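Dear colleagues,

As part of the handover before I leave the project, I'm documenting each prediction I ran so the next person doesn't have to rerun anything. This entry is a single chain, and its sequence is reproduced below.
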Amino acid sequence: MKVAKPLDNTKESQYDTAIFAGGCFWCMVQPFDTYPGIISVVSGYTGGHVKNPSYEEVCTGATGHVEAVKITFDPKIISYKKLVDIYWQVTDPTDAMGQFQDRGGQYQPIIFYNSPEQKKIAEESKKQLEQSHKFDQPIVTKIEPAHSFYPAEEYHQDFYKKNPLRYQMEEAGGRAQFIERHWKNNK
């Protein structure tokens, strides 16, 4: 497995990237994939100390990696701020050790920023969410600098399209109900 090449994020570049961890990456692709301006959403692993980890290695929790998605987007069509807003609405920001039925450090919620501007947007957004008092518990989602991103094995890519029944089963694990309970008026 090869490390994905980082995109040129200079002003001359047409696209930018965002990396979000929020539980099983199978469930993190579809919410972003459906927006205009999204070029690609890749499932993968990041944040750990093992180079080129496999799914089986990450599942042990011993690699330090989290399951994440790397989103390539056109900032002229969809902003990073909008992506962060979407992120909050598809994760449980109050659960530090997993998401819904997925338990363990490899499923913790983390926003990985790749520039000072992304860091500022993520931190301001988190502060606004905290001040909204939408949740009874503290917001524990971490905001960290981006690390090497390792694309997951091919069978994990676009899982919601390749295996819609299994995807629906995963979504039935609490994510859809959580979104409905906390965000139904924000859609």
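The chain is about 35% helix and 20% strand. The chain has a mean pLDDT of 87.

All the best with the project,
I.
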